[in-house]
Amino acid sequence: MVTVPFFCPDTPPLKKNPVFLYSSDNFKKPYPFDADIAVGLDDVFEKKVDALLALESQTFEGGALGSAEKTAKSPPASQPELRRAWLRERWERRQGGEADRFRAALVQWYGPEKGKQIRFAEAFEICEYGRQPNAAEIRELFPFFPEPE
What we know:
Blueprint: E1 21-23, E2 37-40, H1 45-53, H2 56-59, H3 68-73, H4 80-101, H5 103-110, H6 112-117, E3 121-126, H7 135-141
Antiparallel strand pairs: 1-3, 2-3
């Protein structure tokens, strides 16, 4: 829809379709997630936890499906150190699981040595509705990937 003229009248349509990426999930239907790209988070993991701390309604209250019961299960705002540890432990498990689950994609983009050492990761699948980037274009979008050997 981003290339359709007049879809959003006050914004000119894009001349070419952008790359759209799916974030990983555990759904099996209509088909399971397949990582095309995996990004190591080891160097920025603590910053990510700090950023998530700022999203209180999403992180501690349950977001759109929030409830008093969900809020009661997280540490209170009056205990920020406990709150951060609680959140970090959950994201460590999640992003550590992603690194293990999508190790092949990490090795593909970082090389065997570094790819096998990454502890925390996020994975993405290229959406078929957008532009289909080649490896060089992916490296432009993710400039921190090392050059292939």
